[in-house]
Amino acid sequence: MTILMGCDTFPPDVNGAARFAERLAAGLVERGHDLHIVAPSASRRHGTWIEEHEGLKMTAHRLRSWRWYPHDWLRFALPWMSKANARRVLDEVKPDVVHIQSHIVVGRGLAYEAEKRGIRVIATNHVMPENMIEFTLLPKFLQKTFISIAWRDARKSFDRAEAVTTPTRKAAQFLERATGLRGVHAISCGIDAHNYTPDFTPRTGNRILFVGRVTGEKQIDVLLNAIKLLPESLDARLEIVGGGDQFRNLQTLAETLGIANRAKFLGYVTDEELRQAYTRATVFAMPSIAELQSIATMEAMASALPVVAADAMALPHLVHDGENGHLFRPGDAQDLADKLESVLTLPQEELDVLKNASLRIVATHDIQTTISTFESLYRGEPVADPETAAAPGVPTPE
């Protein structure tokens, strides 16, 4: 098939949506499909060229973009050009199917123009307007109105799609409640577990790892406060991998808390350095309250790490309390510290039980299953959502 994938964020951007789009695109190329990416340019240079991602070549249609300065790296394509850009690329590529990874700018234009041409549209949602608030510069009294309008606007693009997907059943139910959609498919972002290296040798230290964007909704400040509350006898060390607008603020917080010597901010790292960080860690911590799935948590699990995560959004889908880690009350540093301590003080045999459970749970999120499911959707075939561990509870959007 000739597949056109529309993204508002794509590598070199570093975030979960971009990583998923890249892996899915590369997997489709590997299976012989003609894959085209439409995404904002990563610089002032724009146009069409061949790019290599995950070692595979695909055609990229990079749109003229502008930098959004309230955000630390975001560049966006011009909204008023979305339909014109879509018409140009669709006429050039003539795809069999369009898969939009975002409904905000690029996906909006593609969905509208593809529907007019009778081209099948598949839509995947990675976005919660609630996560975008801090970058809109809106005053607090307008934020609730913005969220309501944003969800109604999303519905307009999703209604043009033959199928709508999101990474987990919990996220699918959230999306249905927020927009009024029905029949949203839960399809895991998926990972290739073979890329990660579990380590079952006896641990020589207590290393806690966080991987992700260093932004407000990740609640890394809660994690830093939890490190402060851990007994000094544990000699626990925290590594934070990732960059973002809160990087310096959190470094300052670590100094204020007196834990700067125990909290290491690594910033952006190479893929190999990231895999090494997972392998050498003892436990993975994810304090975020806004995860629609969390690729970083899955990568940690594929590295056989126990996980301590906030009991929020889709994280309970991955972290089964007492089985492969623990869930803590969102925003509660003491509860997070207690759950981390419980893992860090386990005998090696009991720690290995948690590590093996992580490997078992993440095995249901194989990227090849994800790719096959999307191929079926692209062909217009009915699909059953891939079997993954069920998650309790569903949040109700404001």
From TrEMBL:
Residues 204-357 form the Glycosyl transferase family domain. It comes from the Bacteria. It comes from Leifsonia shinshuensis. Keywords: Glycosyltransferase, Transferase. GO terms for molecular function: glycosyltransferase activity. This is D-inositol 3-phosphate glycosyltransferase. GO terms for biological process: carbohydrate derivative biosynthetic process. Residues 14-193 form the Glycosyltransferase subfamily 4-like N-terminal domain. Pfam families: Glyco_transf_4, Glycos_transf_1. The keyword DNA-binding does not apply. SUPFAM superfamilies: UDP-Glycosyltransferase/glycogen phosphorylase. Signal peptide: none annotated.
